[in-house]
Amino acid sequence: MAPHSAFETNTVEQKVKTLVNAHLKSILKKENLLVSGVKVAMQRRINAQLHLHADNQDLNRFNRLKGFIMNPESMNSPAAPYPLNQSPYSNFPQVAGPRPIFKDSPFYTILQHLTPVQECKVREATRDTIECKIILKSDVADKLVSEPDLRVMIFCASEPISHFSKVDVAFPHQVEIKVNLDEVKANLRGLKNRAGSTRPADITNLLRKRAYYENSMTLTYALTHKKFYFVVNLVRQHLVEELVAKLKSGKTISKDQVIREMISKAQDTDVQAIGSIISLKCPLSTLRIDVACRSTICTHNQCFDATSFLQLQEQAPTWTCPVCNKTVSFEALEIDLYVDDILKSTPKTIDQVTVEPDGKWSRISEHGARPKAGHDSSDDDEDLVEIKDPPRVTAVKNEMANGSISMRTPPTSSREQSATSSVPPPSIGTKRSVSAVIDLTSDDEEENPRHPKKSATPAYLTTPTHSSPGNGRAQPVANSLGSFGPYSGNPPAEPNYIQRGYPHR
Q1: Which of 125, 194, 334, 415 could be joined to 504 by an S-S link, Cβ 3.0–4.6 Å?
Q2: 187-239: pLDDT as tens digits
Q3: Which is nearest to 295 in space by CA: 327, 257, 334?
């Protein structure tokens, strides 16, 4: 291992600041790094690559990059073969051509490669398996144990790949990954028809975190129509809470700026400015917004909760605004202080406010909004009709309550009087309790009660009765045929109208 003094970077970094753009681009090409961007961005990439070689104790690569920086004219001479550091991966074949450069993510930062880039050839009708060994150096193994934010992840990308563009993480559609014979349980497909929605596979918990231990890894894939490239990287993970704290401490959209934009839109003669409603609920979680956030490229004032948005992007990174569906980035997210002031000035029971074109806001209830459509119980009372009991029905009820009802057939005159008596008309609109309403149509014995008949009283109902000395009950007198009226056998059942108060049948 080279001494630490061999990796002095301060002098080299000072030299990077003096290089012109042409030299910076040439160095980036030699290092297979992204060439586009402003001068400051290119300088940062070179310095980051310099520190990467120093951290990996890769003296050959460090001195090669240092020579390009200190003597940029030497890059015009024929290039020497790229030196390989003596490492556990020196026996692995290196991929010819460009290596994939993955797009940046706010949730992790790639620190170093733990394996060389492996190529998955096209397999249109068959399957193939790529075997790989993940060997951790002593310093990496120790950091993985002591620093929980360090993770080991598998990155994969498909063609086309170039030196000048970054690629999304994408695995073959049919793929299975095993580490030390344990299957990797991860979503390797992402969202359907959404490129860039796949996350790298985290295999940290499946590794044996011992120095120079050969962790075996197999990647089995099938039915591919283009090449794929994968590599295992050591990354530093950034939690959602850390990113939210970074947003709070970063740039913000001031309250005055929002009001100025509203007034500017209201002064447009082609558009009639009216009040709008801003919801205080996050469109993603449907909960009240905690950290009001939106992108600077969006033109709406509606915000979403920063924590909910970042949690969703961590699972499936689509990076689209949940309000207008525009493509956004983490760098474009800012805290809206105007909406934040509304959240602090309103109780948690308020879900939305009305915003005027001049920027003034008020609660919905203060605008005299109609209350929610309720149910007025007084309307139901108007539908209830009071039905008064006829005198005979009342008398029968009283006798049944006292238990002294006579089981005899009433005289014909009383039945006729009951049939001819008229029921008083119902009083419409009179309120009474539901328990006082009597249902005169229900029948435990007859499902379809018959309507009253207008014919004369049948003869069998007027059969004379006499009292039995045995039990004191009224018994019908048998006729000359030895039967009870027109019936034979048992006497007729007692008419139901006595129990229910029906008029004469």
Answers
A1: 415
A2: 998 888 788 899 999 999 999 999 999 999 999 999 999 999 999 999 999 99
A3: 334
